[in-house]
Design goal:
This protein is α+β, with helices and mostly antiparallel strands and 205 residues long. Helices cover 30% and strands 27% of the residues. The termini are far apart.
Length: 205
């Protein structure tokens, strides 16, 4: 019969010790390979947690290279218009520890980066991220503490980049229909979908 695992000792009773290479794969600064990975990445997820200790993960996307490596130990990226809940930004001002996971379409490996984040409207950083004449709302600055490549197993198992595995959008209700059902609103789903699509196109930057 199995058991719940509540300690590191309990975990190690199930999992073997990692190899020396795996234990030592995290570096305290960006090297040429991690910088190049970030330059080519159009998408990453950022993990944070706030004063209630609940963790949160948020997606961020842009043109390849929208995250800038300022030097060996600092990266920065823009905060573009969203839903104004400010989950990640609020978490950062309370607890600045963050974890980032970078993806490159077609590449099975990922890049992990852990560090200490802050939110700023410093003019020199804001000007870096003007896009089509539009400034970001703010810039997130991350001091790098750990950075390392993540192996390909997860993306290989998911077969994420295989175009033949793409799900037909009709397999799920539209966003508007799901919102209508969740909030029990009388607004027709088609109007919600129209408004959401219009906002996505008009307020992308």
């Amino acid at each position: 019969m199995g058991k719940d695992l509540h300690s590191e000792q309990g975990l190690r009773s199930v999992y073997p010790e990692p190899t020396k290479y795996v234990r030592e794969k995290a570096f305290p600064k960006l090297d040429k390979h991690s910088r190049r990975f970030i330059e080519l990445s159009p998408f990453f997820c950022i993990g944070s947690f706030g004063p209630d200790q609940l963790a949160d993960v948020s997606p961020r996307g842009g043109e390849p290279g929208f995250v800038h490596a300022l030097d060996e130990t600092h990266i920065a990226f823009p905060d573009r218009p969203g839903n104004n809940r400010l989950d990640t930004l609020t978490n950062i001002v309370h607890t600045p520890s963050v974890g980032l996971l970078f993806f490159i379409p077609g590449v099975h490996e990922m890049l992990r980066l852990n560090g200490i984040a802050s939110v700023t409207t410093r003019e020199d950083l804001m000007l870096r991220f003007v896009h089509e004449g539009k400034r970001p709302r703010s810039v997130i600055l991350v001091e790098v503490r750990e950075v390392y490549l993540h192996c390909s197993k997860a993306l290989r198992r998911s077969d994420l980049w295989n175009p033949d595995k793409r799900l037909a959008r009709a397999a799920l209700p539209t966003f508007g229909q799901m919102a209508k059902d969740q909030f029990n609103t009388v607004i027709p789903a088609r109007l919600l979908d129209f408004a959401l699509e219009r906002d996505a196109k008009k307020n992308l930057y």
